[in-house]
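S1.2 Input.
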Amino acid sequence: MHDELLGLLNHLIRLTPEEEKYVKSSFTFLKLQKGDFFLQSNNICKYVGFLKKGLVRYFVIKNDEESTFEFTKEGDFVADYTSFMGKQKSMQNIEAIEDCELLVIDHEKLNFFYNNTPNGNYLGRLVIEHRFNVMANTLLSVYMQNSEQRYQKFLNDYADLTQRIPQYHIASYVGVQPPSLSRIRRRILNL
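S1.3 Output.
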């Protein structure tokens, strides 16, 4: 059950046998159905999840509309780290857009891993740095790119997901209505 997670962690840094045992005992299984929330805004993010199967989207409510800013697929981590680490209410939502299987760890167990294992702090730093880079690039694209450039970014970042993500979520990510997304797609195809 933990093979993919251990594979990823061992790819980043070689875990000791004790660390592998701790990971296996601390990450528990969570299943979400399509449409279920891993996190809803105004709640505290209680877990960091490793997505074994499925797809989630991150979004906020802006001017009474959903604004999608990220998608995460199997093999990556899922959380609102600001809420999780600071134990504060989240402004974002994380929703399953497919049936999902995750391995989750709570704040206490993750901090124990950080503070009491030889590689814990370093591994945590690597994961947080990755998430920081994703979020910084997302933020920059919102401010620096027009809708056509954002769609191109979507194609570059999520090429393998285009058939798995509903078009209205892609439109939300790009920052346009679905009919406008169709026009953008036609323009790009005609180039």
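S1.4 Remarks. Residues 120-144 form the longest helix (25 residues).
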